[in-house]
Amino acid sequence: MLPRPGRPTLRAVIPDPDDLWIQADPLPTDPFPLLSAWLDQAFEEGSQRNPHAIALATLCADGRPTVRMVLCKRVESEAGAVVFYTDRSGRKSAEIEADARVALVFSFAARERQVRIEGRATQTDAADSDAYFASRPRGTQLAAHASRQSQPLRSRHALEQELARVTERFPSGPVPRPPDWGGFRVVADRVELWRGRPSRLHDRASYRRIDAGWEVERLQP
Ligand SMILES: Cc1cc2nc3c(=O)[nH]c(=O)nc-3n(C[C@H](O)[C@H](O)[C@H](O)COP(=O)(O)O)c2cc1C
């Protein structure tokens, strides 16, 4: 919730005396184990809803950037990649098909941590998409069949009618994955870890992928 005018800004930052890794030189050689650790910690602490929510930016055909939230469902540390799932017939998917370059950001606000990623998105394979779709609650599986993401909708009622039709089609038993629904894997070529510090003297570690791993440099805040 945003602070109301006239009230002091709430700073619900969890004290973090042990989190000194990014203050030390040399910096960690690989950003992904730290991303995983930060994400796990945010889930364990329950300090924010959907800590795996990421803002995902793509490029429109005319070069304009556009951004929306998605949920990061997997961090693949070894590959240096993150995975999200979506309707592949929607707008973001068309933009990715046209230009695979994307940028995304995680925010772990309670600990003043941010992770920026730039990279390329490609579709995950059918087995991966099937497995994730099968793990979803039945209601969301049916909704995936009822909705054609990003297409115009005549009315809310029309969407609910479509859901009723889909529910009749799959009254019980497993719901198959819609052919256009599935995952995207973003393989990072740049990553920045950011950790807020008092007096705006923040820590920033900027990683660039090189053949053998990652090249890292510290940036001014
Ligand atoms: C917290 C949050 C999480 C979301 N997660 C997803 C997601 O994992 N996949 C998805 O397709 N849309 C997700 N959405 C909806 C998207 O932001 C977006 O409205 C939708 O994907 C259509 O985007 P597009 O028209 O650019 O393709 C999420 C929205 C919010 C606010």
Order of helices and strands: HEEEHEEHHHEEE
Low-confidence stretches: 1-15
Strand segment count: 8
CATH architecture: Roll
N-to-C CA distance = 27 Å
Which molecules are bound in this entry?
Answer: flavin mononucleotide
Describe the global form: elongated
Task: Write down the Rg.
Answer: 20 Å
> What's the number of structural domains?
1
Beta-strand content bin: 25-35%
Share of helix among residues?
Answer: 10-25%
Structural class: alpha+beta
Q: CATH homologous superfamily, by name?
A: Electron Transport, Fmn-binding Protein, Chain A
Number of helices: 5
Strand order of the largest sheet: 1-2-3-6-5-4
CATH classification class: Mainly Beta
Biggest beta sheet summary = 6 strands, antiparallel, barrel
Enter the CATH topology name. Pnp Oxidase, Chain A
Mean pLDDT: 91
Short summary:
The protein has 221 residues and is an alpha+beta fold.
Structure description:
This protein has 221 residues and is α+β, with helices and mostly antiparallel strands. The protein is 25% helix and 33% strand. It has a single domain, classed as Roll (Pnp Oxidase, Chain A). It has helices spanning 32-45, 91-98, 126-135, 138-146, 156-169; strands at residues 53-59, 65-76, 81-87, 101-108, 113-123, 181-195, 203-210, 213-218. A hairpin with a 4-residue loop joins strand 4 (101-108) and strand 5 (113-123). Helix 4 (138-146) crosses helix 5 (156-169). The model is unreliable at 1-15 (pLDDT under 50). Bound molecules: flavin mononucleotide. Flavin mononucleotide binds at residues 50, 53, 68-71, 84-87, 90-92, 149-150.
